[in-house]
């Protein structure tokens, strides 16, 4: 009866009689170990994977991305998706301190639409995408609005290629998995400051697990947000994958459970307890995105357009996102002890190798 989500798993408190010293109010920073021994330090284990930047004007998109990063959330975007670097001198002056070290996750798509040298200069993490995602229509394609943003096409100018551009139009940059290590080494040279991860959707993951584990990537991102699956069944797959020899750290965009239920904050902490290193917050963002759709463009008479946008966006994050980020942060401070997971269901405890809480 528990099998549709992770409700059968319990986050465990300390054992009776164990030390109960105060825990730090915030968890330590998240260290991403890079090949060669250096690390990339991130404020949290949370990242935004797939925001619809083309839905918003460049100014709104840029202000939104900057606010997410100010709250410690690694954010996936290209500079072209935020309108490039063509803002006024005043806006550049205001955002320069933040832009020096953005928490940018660079989405390296096979077609390389919208990619620029600036992205390699500022990326904290590079996401080498081996699997295309379906768009809202179900196609493996990019919309006219996405292409227009990537190519900076003026609104009055028609787009070449019509309304949709197939995700397979251009020759792939990575022909097969055998060529993946060379691409990773090339990206390390282009962005020596960044961690490099490889992302896939889960359908062919198990079949190719040994090849993916052998790549020199710093992490493997499983992008599962477009599938619906039983929570315990998916946790069992993760558990088996984590136990494979030489598998890199796993990042995860969680799937939806049965009946399209989104993974909650507590579910995400349970996934971290199982061994997942970082979690995408896309499932928490539907209301945020809907509210950002309503943010007006700053007035042409505004003395500070950036401040005007921040005043519109901050309340949205405070109402719809930051309470979940705070709960995630708080729960992270409670899973430092082992064991951190248990279940009153004997079968589930055995399947996931967690502490059985029954008789």
Task: Please state the overall shape, judged from the principal axes of the Cα atoms.
Answer: globular
Per DSSP E runs of 2 or more residues, the count of β-strands stands at 15
Low-confidence stretches: 87-100
**What portion of residues is helical?**
25-40%
SSE string, helices as H and strands as E = EEEEHEHEHEEHEHEHEHEHEHHHEHE
For the biggest β-sheet, the strand order reads 4-5-6-7-10-11-12-13
> Approximately how much beta-strand content do the residues carry?
15-25%
Whole-Å distance between the termini?
Answer: 19 Å
Rounded average pLDDT: 87
Give me the Rg, rounded.
21 Å
Largest sheet: 8 strands, parallel, barrel
Number of helical segments?
12
Secondary structural class: alpha/beta
């Amino acid at each position: 009866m528990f099998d549709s989500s992770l409700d059968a798993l319990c986050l465990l408190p300390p054992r009776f009689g164990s030390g109960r010293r105060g825990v730090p109010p915030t968890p330590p920073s998240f260290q991403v170990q890079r090949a060669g021994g250096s690390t990339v330090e991130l404020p949290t284990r949370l990242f935004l994977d797939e925001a619809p930047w083309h839905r918003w004007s460049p100014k709104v998109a840029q202000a939104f991305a900057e606010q997410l990063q100010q709250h410690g959330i690694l954010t996936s975007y290209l500079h072209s998706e935020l309108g490039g670097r063509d803002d006024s001198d005043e806006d550049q002056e205001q955002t320069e301190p933040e832009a020096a070290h953005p928490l940018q996750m660079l989405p390296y798509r096979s077609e390389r639409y919208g990619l620029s040298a600036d992205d390699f200069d500022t990326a904290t993490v590079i996401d080498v995408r081996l699997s295309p995602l379906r768009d809202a229509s179900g196609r493996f394609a990019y919309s006219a609005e996405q292409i227009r943003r990537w190519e900076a096409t003026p609104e009055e100018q028609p787009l070449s290629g019509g309304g949709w551009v197939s995700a397979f139009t251009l020759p792939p940059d990575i022909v097969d998995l055998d060529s993946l290590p060379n691409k990773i080494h090339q990206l390390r040279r282009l962005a020596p400051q960044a961690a490099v991860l490889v992302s896939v959707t889960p359908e062919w993951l198990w079949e190719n697990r040994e090849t993916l584990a052998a790549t020199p990537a710093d992490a493997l991102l499983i992008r599962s947000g477009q599938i619906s699956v039983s929570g315990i069944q998916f946790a069992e797959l993760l558990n088996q994958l984590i136990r494979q020899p030489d598998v890199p750290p796993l990042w995860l965009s969680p799937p939806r459970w049965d009946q399209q239920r989104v993974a909650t904050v507590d579910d995400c902490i349970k996934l971290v307890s199982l061994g997942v290193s970082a979690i995408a917050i896309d499932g928490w963002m539907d209301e945020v995105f809907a509210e950002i759709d309503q943010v007006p463009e700053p007035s042409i008479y505004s003395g500070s357009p950036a401040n005007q946008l921040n005043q519109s966006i901050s309340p949205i994050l405070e109402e719809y996102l930051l309470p979940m980020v705070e709960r995630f942060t708080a729960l992270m401070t409670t899973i430092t002890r082992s064991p951190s997971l248990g279940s009153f269901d004997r079968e589930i405890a055995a399947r996931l190798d967690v502490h059985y809480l029954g008789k």
